[in-house]
Design goal:
Helix content is about 15%, strand content about 60%. With about 160 residues, the protein is mainly beta. Strands 3-2-10-9-8-7-6-5-4-1-11 form an eleven-stranded antiparallel beta sheet, with no helix packed on it.
């Protein structure tokens, strides 16, 4: 069958066979990855008592990876204060773009669940910004949490 095909048709089909994967590859959603080993701020607000606590962060780290415009993502933040340890796990993504992830988070204090499926978001500075940072906010009707930190130098990947 191929031997009966005109050369121009054969060449056209060959070019199309090569072009389709290239076009498909070029339309993939961008992927982003950020990391911080310097969490600088952490606060908790108890909606029941009205108590606001601004913690002194003794150590903290965070990592996020997500594919823009999809529900594919990973996020984890760990913060230690003078008295407690907190962990924030992104468990469900509802939306994302080049600088943010929106979704649901599980929050743990000293290993004990504090909030399951808290609504919240994580924002990062745009690529090339002179002050690379991240900020995450999540909560429910009982408590809300705000975390901020500096992105580690040369660890942001966008492709």
């Amino acid at each position: 069958m191929l031997s009966n095909m005109p050369k121009s048709v054969f060449n056209g089909l060959a070019a199309l066979t090569v072009a389709i994967p290239v076009v498909a590859w070029s339309t993939l959603a961008p992927v982003h990855n950020v990391r911080s080993s310097s969490m600088t701020g952490f606060q908790e607000y108890n909606h029941t008592t009205g108590q606001f606590t601004l913690y002194t962060v003794t150590s903290g780290k965070a990592t996020f990876s997500w594919q823009e415009g999809t529900l594919q993502s990973f996020g984890n933040v760990q913060v230690k204060t003078q008295t407690d340890s907190f962990e924030f796990k992104l468990v469900r993504t509802t939306s994302s773009d080049s600088i943010s992830i929106n979704g649901e988070w599980d929050v743990f204090k000293n290993g004990t669940p504090r909030c399951a499926g808290c609504k919240g978001y994580m924002n990062v500075s745009p690529p090339g910004d002179s002050y690379p940072y991240l900020k995450a906010v999540m909560g429910d009707d009982k408590a809300s949490y705000t975390i901020s930190g500096d992105l580690d130098p040369n660890t942001r990947y966008d492709y």
